[in-house]
Amino acid sequence: MIISALKSSIPSDTRSPIHEDTIKNLLNLETEIWFEEDVGLGINSSNKVFENIGLKKHTREDCLKNGNLIITNQALNTEELKLIKPNSTILGMVNPFNNQELINQCSKLMINLVSMEFIPRITRAQKMDVLSSQANLAGYVAVIESAKNLSTALPMMMTAAGTLKPAKVFVIGVGVAGLQAIATAKRLGARVEAFDTRDVVEEQVNSLGAKFVKIDLGETGETDQGYAKELTNEQINKQKELQSKVCERSDIVITTAQLFGRPAPLLIDNNTIDKMMPGSVIFDMAVESGGNVEGSEVDNIVVRNGVKIIGISNLAAKVSSHASLALSNNYNNWITDFFDRDNSNINFDFDDEIIQSSVLVFNGEIKNQRFKE
To answer: Could you tell me if 90 and 106 are in contact, meaning their C-beta atoms sit under 8 angstroms apart?
Structure first.
């Protein structure tokens, strides 16, 4: 069996699907591991580093043509799919809701497709959860990038020249990314407030030393996968109105609200932005999926009424080495859990909950109902 690791095809995404510190887990499977030339360029790992470990350097075309299992951080295009042998498997982050054609082509060409975004949120699968591992780092980066664009320091400083007040940070959405943003801002000395539609996270917010902002939206809650449930239009409007008051007194506002497979909800409109202090910063972590902030733009800083609105794609790639280490472990754990040593291949056992959820195409059949039509 040949496992091929592909280099990121998006310039802003410098992450690698393999990492020198984690590759031993795949080598222990006694498989042949190929990598696309310069796959580790974005994490300062040269081709020689991987070759010295026992991997083999090849062109992207050769990796596609010969790989039985192809690991990728992005969806492949139609021309690349045509190079892949039937009954091979693509494993990776393939953004399925925006790549129906990829799913259709994999079905047509008899290529198995595994979407790591569809790993279920169960205890056994936590080690494979790419969304959580990357969101965790994204939350950290959001605070660092916000601090860089703020004209004041985050911690309180008592100096001979006077006392400098700590920055006030407001985090909207207390999922994995939000919790890390809270923790990072607190470590840097800011005063932190946070809000989430799920009251159950109040204890987590308080345990990090932040203040939980209570907004009564009526009946809310979370899905069986642990995500916040989608709000009604009335609830969203009430949330926007009440959290606007917190935004007005904040130096940094970080929004993290995303809905899996749907556009992100608009939480901060121009009316709120115009009430904020000039020099303050809004960081829209959902900018790639439509944005939580009116006027936010992907990979751009928009200034409105003196307020900087920041939107950055591939946030985790800003700390590419740690992001790649986490990603490679996620991939490795999926592979090792379902690798059949006797046949030197993946055991697609559809009685297994993880296989049921993550495998979108198998033996030419689209397995997930959401993508059949």
So the answer is: yes
- The answer to whether residue 140 is catalytic is no
227 is catalytic: yes
Domains, in order of start, for the chain: 2-128+320-364 (3.40.50.720), 136-318 (3.40.50.720)
One of 132, 204, 244, 356 is an active-site residue; which one? 132
Catalytic one among 9, 60, 62, 126?
A: 126
Angstrom distance (rounded) from CA 86 to CA 54: 27
Is 331 in the active site? Answer: no
Structure tokens at 75: 């969806």
User: Does the reported pTM lie above 0.90?
Assistant: yes
332 contacts 97 by C-beta, under 8 angstroms: no
Rounded distance between C-alpha atoms, residue 181 and residue 172, angstroms: 10
Tokens matching residue 129: 């959860």
* d(C-alpha 61, C-alpha 58), whole Å: 8
Q: What is the pLDDT along the chain (373 residues), one digit of tens a residue?
A: 999 999 999 998 999 999 999 999 999 998 999 999 999 999 999 999 999 999 999 999 999 999 999 999 999 999 999 999 999 999 999 999 999 999 999 999 999 999 999 999 999 999 999 999 999 999 999 999 999 999 999 999 999 999 999 999 999 999 999 999 999 999 999 999 999 988 889 999 999 999 999 877 666 555 555 555 666 777 777 777 788 999 999 999 999 998 888 899 999 999 999 999 999 999 999 999 999 999 999 999 999 999 999 999 999 999 999 999 999 999 999 999 999 998 899 999 999 999 999 999 999 999 999 998 6
Catalytic residue, candidates 13, 74, 129, 289: 129
**The one-letter amino acid at 40:** G
CA distance 352 to 358: 10
Active site annotation includes 129: yes
B/e letters for 60-99, b = 16+ CB within 10 Å, e = fewer, are bebbbebbbbbbbbbbbeeebbebbeeebbbbbbbebeeb
DSSP bridge pairs for 252: 169, 281
Q: What is the C-alpha to C-alpha distance for residues 323 and 16, in angstroms, rounded to an integer?
A: 8
Which residue of the set 62, 199, 227, 269 is catalytic?
Answer: 227
Count of residues in the chain: 373
